[in-house]
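Allow me, if you will, to draw on your knowledge of protein folds for a short while. I have a record of one protein: its chain in single-letter code and its fold written as discrete structure tokens. Kindly check, if you would, that the fold set down in the tokens agrees with what the sequence suggests. Thank you for your consideration; the sequence and its tokens are set out here:
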Amino acid sequence: MTTRMQVTLDQEQHHRAAEKAAALGVSLAEYIRRVLAADLDDAQELGGDISEIFGIGDSGGSDVARFRDEYLGEALAEAHAHDGPSS
């Protein structure tokens, strides 16, 4: 089943889309269908919900930024302790 719809483009968009369609050897309608299908496929690959990418790297409550100096000091002290006495 197909659905007929009307889309309004400004002159520049229409001109550029028509040129692109002609270069591909397809109708303007086919070009628009392909662009739409590609965009929808990309969204589906992301899980269909763009909000999924927000919070990437969020540990859910890490305090590393707040206590970075203390953690760095502990790591350096431990590294120094493993080096043994310096000469």
Summary: The chain has a mean pLDDT of 78.
